[in-house]
Specification:
Largest sheet: 4 strands, mixed
Strand content: 25-35%
Structural class: alpha+beta
Distance between the termini: 35 Å
Number of helices: 7
Number of domains: 1
Shape: elongated
Radius of gyration: 26 Å
Mean pLDDT: 82
Low-confidence stretches: 1-18, 144-172
Length: about 270
């Protein structure tokens, strides 16, 4: 069992035996709310017509396959719906809401945009901690597949190919992108703790590593820190489910696989506090 230990001879009445309680973290974590993901389908009028079951009925019967709340609306009513949809609305396209922005986007961009939303908040946090410079390096392993037909035999043994046979060559490439952001020092009339308590965060209460960044900065007065974000976002759809939904003519492409190897390395220089 862990606790505080101290020498009674050295302890003074005004000195706590533990580190100070971080009130700003209490305020941040009290704002934590678990929001269910929302999925939206805009179905044309013909999908509501019934023989025995309509297309809408068959899709709705599979609503439990969606890891959140499924919304199905008529495409013809899109102008009256209380949703914000990015781009021209498309029938039978699966949209997923970015929870922080309350914006429905196409499913094939969701993972990338969700991570961008998180990283924007992380950069905001570094700025509030009075960053002088932020350097971030984005690394991602990309899987590439090249198709060879019976007439193309480059780099493939001739015995491995017969007429009409397709061969896939798969390789992994590591792509890297580095950027730096510099900030001028600004005089503040409020402490960092007060600013944090007054700022609305969405992801911070869910990211304990980010809370440790705050604690290290304020408790230890760090002027340099490092952090690596590794994508551990949940895969929302299994291949079997995706194929079932495509059978109903839905556009349900999903970008989780392309983003699963993403890593972003951060180096932060702070102004002294």
């Amino acid at each position: 069992m862990f606790g505080c230990s101290y020498s009674p001879q050295k302890k003074q009445a005004s000195e706590p035996c533990c580190k100070p309680h971080h009130e700003y973290l209490d305020v941040i974590n009290k704002k934590h709310i678990n929001h269910r993901l929302r999925f939206l389908l805009l179905l044309p009028e013909e999908d509501y017509r019934k023989c025995i079951y309509s297309r809408k009925d068959l899709i709705w019967a599979r609503k439990s396959k969606f890891p959140g709340k499924l919304l199905i609306e008529k495409f013809e009513d899109v102008g009256c719906l209380p949703y914000v949809i990015e781009g021209p609305p498309m029938p039978r396209q699966l949209y997923i809401m970015l929870p922080k922005e309350k914006l429905f986007i196409r499913s094939n961009h969701f993972t990338a945009r969700y991570i961008d939303s998180k990283m924007s908040e992380l950069k905001q946090l570094f700025v509030l901690l009075r960053a002088k410079k932020i350097k971030f390096t984005r690394n991602m392993s990309q899987k590439e597949s090249s198709q060879f037909n019976g007439e193309i035999q480059t780099n493939v043994p001739s015995t491995a190919i017969t007429g009409g046979t397709g061969v896939s060559s798969i390789e992994y490439k590591l792509t890297e992108q580095s950027n730096e952001m510099h900030f001028t020092e600004v005089q503040h009339d409020k402490s960092i703790e007060e600013i944090l308590k007054q700022t609305d965060f969405y992801f911070l209460s869910r990211e304990f590593h980010w809370q440790n960044i705050i604690t290290r900065r304020l408790d230890n007065h760090l002027v340099y820190d490092k952090y690596t974000y590794k994508n551990q976002e949940m895969n929302l759809f299994q291949t079997k489910v995706m194929n079932q939904l495509k059978m109903f003519g839905l556009q349900v492409e999903y970008d989780w696989e392309q983003m699963q190897n993403l890593e972003i390395e951060y180096e932060i220089e702070y102004y002294p506090v």
